[in-house]
C-alpha cells in the first residue's frame, strides 16, 4: 500500500468486511484475534492489521511533542501556584494518539469540558479539567480554603466565569510553550460538564491527547488537552526539528567578556579593626571614638564580593577617605 487510507476509506473497508461475514476483535482489529502470523494458501506469510489503530505519529515525533508539553507543565506549575496562592505541581505525564471516540469513552468523570478555538487551527480542540480541581480552584480564587467536601454535578455560569481566571492563564502558558512551532490564539467557545455535548469531532478521527497531572496540599486532579491530528499534522516537522546550536570553541569569548564587564560587583575597603569588650560596646554613645589599628598611608585589605582581592594604601581625596591599590592578592 503506497498511501495512507482516509477515514472514509477505512470505514468503507470495514463495512465491506462485515457484509462478507468477517468479524472485528475486541480491540477493533480486522481478521483473526491472534497476533501470530498467518500462512496463506500460496505459502505467503501475512500478519493481521489493525485498521483502526491510530499510529500516525512515530516515536521520535511523539517525543519531540512531549518536550514542548513538558515545558508547558513547568509553566503551569508556576501559574497555578500564583493564581491559587499555594504550592502546586503540574507535570505532563503522557502524550498519546487515539481515536476521538475511544478518548471520549475513557474520560474519567466528572470533568468540565471547554471547547476551544485555537487559531490558526481549523478544527476545535477540547480541554477538560477535573471538577474537584476546578471547584476547589474557584473556592480558592474567591478567598476560601480550597478544601471542598462535595463537588456539584454542574457549574453555574458565574462559577465558569471565575474558573476562567485559572483556565485562561493556563491556556496562555500552553500556547507559549508551542510558540516556537506555531503562534496560537485561543478562545473558549463553550463550557459544560455533560459528556454527551463533547462530540465535537467524528468518533473515528485521530486526536493527540496531552495529560497534565496537578497536585498540591489539598488540590489534586488533571487537565487534558485534545488536539485533532489534522490540525497538528502540518506542524510535525517543527516539533521534531533539532534546535541545538553548536559553535566553535572560544567563539563566544568576546560576547561573554562584554556581558561580564557590565555585571555590578561589591567592593569594600576595610580601614581597620579593633577589639573591645562587650560592656564597652554596650556603653557606646553617639560621638564616642573607636580607635583603629590602621593609619593613613598603611596598607588595608580590599575584599571583592566578600573575598580579599587587593591591598591598598589608605589616604584622603579632599574631605573623603580613599584607597590606592598597591597589589593584587592571589589570582
Largest sheet: 6 strands, antiparallel
Q: How would you classify the helix and strand content by structural class?
A: alpha+beta
CATH topology description of the largest domain:
Chemotaxis protein chec
Q: What is the name of the CATH class of the largest domain?
A: Alpha Beta
Number of domains: 3
H/E series: HEEHEHEEHHEEEHHHHEEE
- Weakly predicted, low-confidence segments: 20-35
**Average predicted local confidence, pLDDT:** 82
- What is the name of the CATH architecture of the largest domain? 3-Layer(aba) Sandwich
Count of DSSP strands: 11
Rg, nearest Å: 33 Å
Total number of helical segments?
Answer: 9
How much of the sequence is in beta strands? 25-35%
Q: CATH superfamily name of the largest domain?
A: CheC-like
**Widest sheet: strand order?**
3-7-8-5-4-6
Percent helix range: 25-40%
Question: Care to describe what's here?
Answer:
- The chain has a six-stranded antiparallel β-sheet with strand order 3-7-8-5-4-6. The protein has a three-stranded antiparallel β-sheet with strand order 9-10-11, with no helix packed on it.
- The protein is an alpha+beta fold and 331 residues long.
- Strand 9 and strand 10 (307-317) form a beta hairpin.
- It contains nine helices and eleven strands.
Amino acid at each position: 500500500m503506497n498511501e495512507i487510507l482516509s477515514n472514509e476509506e477505512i470505514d468503507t473497508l470495514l463495512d465491506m468486511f462485515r457484509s462478507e461475514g468477517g468479524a472485528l476483535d475486541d480491540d477493533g482489529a480486522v481478521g483473526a484475534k491472534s497476533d501470530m502470523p498467518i500462512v496463506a494458501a500460496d505459502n505467503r506469510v501475512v500478519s493481521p492489521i489493525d485498521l483502526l489503530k491510530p499510529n500516525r505519529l512515530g516515536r521520535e515525533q511523539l517525543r519531540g511533542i512531549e518536550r514542548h508539553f513538558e515545558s508547558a507543565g513547568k509553566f503551569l506549575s508556576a501559574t497555578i501556584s500564583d493564581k491559587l496562592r499555594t504550592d502546586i505541581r503540574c507535570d505532563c505525564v503522557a502524550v498519546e494518539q487515539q481515536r476521538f471516540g475511544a478518548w471520549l469513552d475513557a474520560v474519567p468523570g466528572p470533568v468540565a469540558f471547554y471547547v476551544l478555538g485555537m487559531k490558526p487551527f481549523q478544527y476545535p480542540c477540547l480541554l477538560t479539567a477535573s471538577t474537584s480541581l476546578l471547584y476547589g480552584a474557584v473556592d480558592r480564587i474567591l478567598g476560601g480554603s480550597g478544601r471542598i467536601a462535595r463537588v456539584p454535578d454542574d457549574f453555574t455560569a458565574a462559577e465558569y466565569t471565575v474558573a476562567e481566571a485559572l483556565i485562561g492563564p493556563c491556556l496562555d502558558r500552553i500556547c507559549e510553550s508551542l510558540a516556537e512551532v506555531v503562534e496560537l490564539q485561543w478562545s473558549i467557545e463553550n463550557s459544560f460538564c455533560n459528556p454527551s455535548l463533547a462530540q465535537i469531532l467524528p468518533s473515528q478521527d485521530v486526536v493527540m491527547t496531552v495529560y497534565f497531572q496537578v497536585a498540591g496540599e489539598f488540590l489534586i486532579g488533571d487537565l487534558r488537552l485534545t488536539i485533532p491530528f489534522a490540525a497538528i499534522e502540518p506542524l510535525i516537522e517543527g516539533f521534531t526539528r533539532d534546535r541545538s546550536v553548536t559553535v566553535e570553541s572560544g567563539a563566544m569569548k568576546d560576547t561573554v567578556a562584554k556581558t561580564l564587564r557590565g555585571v555590578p560587583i561589591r567592593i569594600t575597603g576595610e580601614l581597620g579593626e579593633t577589639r573591645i569588650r562587650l560592656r564597652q560596646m554596650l556603653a557606646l554613645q553617639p560621638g564616642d571614638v573607636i580607635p583603629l589599628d590602621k593609619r593613613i598611608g598603611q596598607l588595608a585589605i580590599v575584599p571583592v564580593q566578600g573575598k580579599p582581592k587587593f591591598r591598598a594604601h589608605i589616604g584622603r581625596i579632599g574631605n573623603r577617605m580613599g584607597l590606592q591599590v598597591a597589589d593584587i592578592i592571589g589570582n
